[in-house]
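quick one before i forget lol
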Amino acid sequence: MEELDVEPTTTNIPASEGNHLGFVWGPGDILVYDTIYKSSGSVGTCSSFIHEVRKDEDIYSPILRKLFNESHHIFVGLQTIREDLPNKNKKTQFVSISKNYRSVIRACMEELQQVADTELATQYGNQVSILLAIELIWNLCEVLFIDAAPGGSLLLHLLDWVRLHKADVDEKAQEVLQSESPTEHHGYWDVPGGSQTLTEFDVKWRHWHDMVDHSLQDNSFASDPNLELICKILMGDEDAILEQKDLLSTWYHFLVTRLLFSHPTVKPTELHYYAQSCLAMFDSRSAPEPLDSILLAAFEFDIHQVIKDCSIALNNWWFVAHLTDLLDHCNLLQSHNLHFGSNLREFLLLEYASGLFTHHSLWQLAVDYFDHCPEFGRVYLEQQIEHVPLDTERKALKVLRICEQRQMSEQVRSICKIMAKRALRNNRLGSALSWSIRAKDAAFATLISERFLQDYCARGTFSDLDLIDNLGPAMLLSDRLTFLGKYREFHKLYGENRFSDAATLLLSLMTAQIAPRSFWMTLLTDALPLLEQKEVRLPPKVNERNTWEPEMSSLYNLSVKPMTFQDEDVEVTKVELLRLALARNLAMAIVKEGTVAV
């Protein structure tokens, strides 16, 4: 297996010679631009280009997007494991969840490898290398920390780890097993099986070890230098290893091989010693590669160093966020808190989720990650959700539902106001009114209600009747909205020939004085045909002071108050007709009821 490249890629941003660069921080990226200012202090020309620098480019990969989606379901399932379960049961579930994470990684890796030969080979090839490294590290952490097998069993798990990450091991094993004599096959020793018990293996190993050591001591292999060299390497002879290290695969492959042939019952606490010595013998460089440092930290059982090194070396937060979350559920990180309030698990989940929020669809996954960050998750969600572009009404409803489910009242009002104003600009009065009602914005509901009334005056009909007919208690949000709803109810009563009920409602609307002044003439005009109906008689009641009751007085005042009209002659005529109709109706009521003149 070749050494994996986990170094992040860098890109140079071109700028005019000697010019300063300017930048603006965004929620998930930085906009960098060329300025007119030079380092010498003078002012010159600049480039017209703006460069977008994203901090998490992988979320825009269509294949890696599957990794984020699938792992989200695993993450949510992990959070549902009950704390009161016995440790043995929880361990089984944790190991299963770890394997699920790795299977998602491998599925994405295989899909990336299938397209690596296309014109996007460079881009996908780098992602394949990163996923190979991620799966290698995760598998080792699963063996050492999550499954945490005891000595003896640990080596068998490490053998599986090596075999799994040896690219051609399955093909070699199949070739050996299908041969006429598998034990005589040249690849037999490259893929040994692990079917015997630990006791059987230990007895056979000790016998084999003593036999090889005795053969080396009495020079039994002197006639075959290659066989003698192999035996020396397997017995841990450092000189032999240094001479032939170029023929070996990687230091961690050699580590497991050395443990298998020299220390098969190695204890977990002894791993760091062998890991350090193997790396030192295998690699003469002054500083190990990032992957080597991460694996060495794992063999040294330094979990926090593994997470720290991965955070630096890998190009996104997906790996460290999910691995840390799993390790935290295994109670392996409880002693490590950060100095600025949040623990390590929450810090990494917040960083990962914040990156998802910059994507046009993955932001929905981030909500669940914030939900499971008890200390700062809600604060981050409130801030991030305000940056989600409300491109369509469907998307706005999604965001609104998320906020309503979490009682984020301020964000709910903000979203509704934005959508109401947008709908009003597009002259979609029904949608604007619906959003303003959801926002409980009385002032904006009043404004939209007046627009409905203006449209009615201009066209003679109402739009969005379904909405107005079903306002219900929402019409109490503002006086103007109440008037709109009741005025529409008056029209329904009139259309059903319920003239008496319609007249009573119209009279109450006039006397309540909640209608805009510009609409008074419309109300008076609506009263004209009603006053001529035989069944409609306005109440001629008087009080103790021999004056009309307030309802009648207000109606009369409306008909005689001076008003400014656009078409003076027509409107004056309407007022005169109204006064005449009002007087006639009142006289008829007095005669009919046999009351005295007031």
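fyi The chain has 26 helices and three strands.
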